[in-house]
Amino acid sequence: MDNFDRRTELIHGIETEYLRVLYYDFNNKYSGNYKSYDSIRLCTIIDGEKNVKINDNDNFTYNNSEFIVLPPNSTVNLEINVPTKALVFEINSTLIDSITKKVCIEFENDLSCDINKNILYKEVSPELHTSFEKILKTALSSEKNKEFLVDLYAQEMTYNLIRIKGVHDILNVDSNNFIHISVNMMKDNISEGITISEIASALNMSPANFSVKFKKVMGVSPNEYFTNIKLLEAKRMLKKESVTEVAYNLGYENISHFIGLFKDKFGMTPKKYMLIEEV
User: Fold this and answer.
1) What are residue 120's DSSP bridge partners?
2) Is the N or C terminus of the chain more exposed, i.e. has fewer CB atoms within 10 Å?
3) pTM over the 0.90 mark
């Protein structure tokens, strides 16, 4: 791998209801920029090190003993000078809110964090390290119910993460941003036939202006992003419904078009996916 590309991430990332798991393997030196887009990013290193400058703040270097939490829409200038393998978790805000509301947290005292810089930089605890290993091992396995298991481990990881004092404040930075609102509208209306124009109107933006600003932040158009959300939901629905039912319930009147989109994303037709799930 020699660069960060959002479209490649969305196609090849392992994704569940709560989490997107992204793996990067840099064998050569690399210098460039990337964004955290709409999700909270938990950035870890398996081997090697990164020199980063986040949101135009000071440069620093971190390795496999540390992690970084980035709020949505952060900009990172990255420099890699040695072979580096990295693991990134994009955490759904719904999971963070759910765990925060359900559990009573005793915060740790030690913290390497600057709320004003909107990042958290911390040593990896044994509990977090175990969670990382569980998620990666399961995500790469052929386990039939791996999405379900990954989400269980994601809850454990998020619980251990928010036990660190100050994390919740960082994770909820900019929660009223139009990107967050539009993405939540997509997720909440996935079966209701909502259009990008209707989302733009609800945000008091023209469709063209909304699309330009969304793509500038997210790296893909609103339509591409919404399609990705629908296709992930399709995988869940196919466990109980027929291909035709899933297509119609997600707003696809052209079944062949739905099948083509599904195959492009997952490398197999919906029917083949159903057969694999039945094994």
Assistant:
1) 69, 113
2) C
3) no
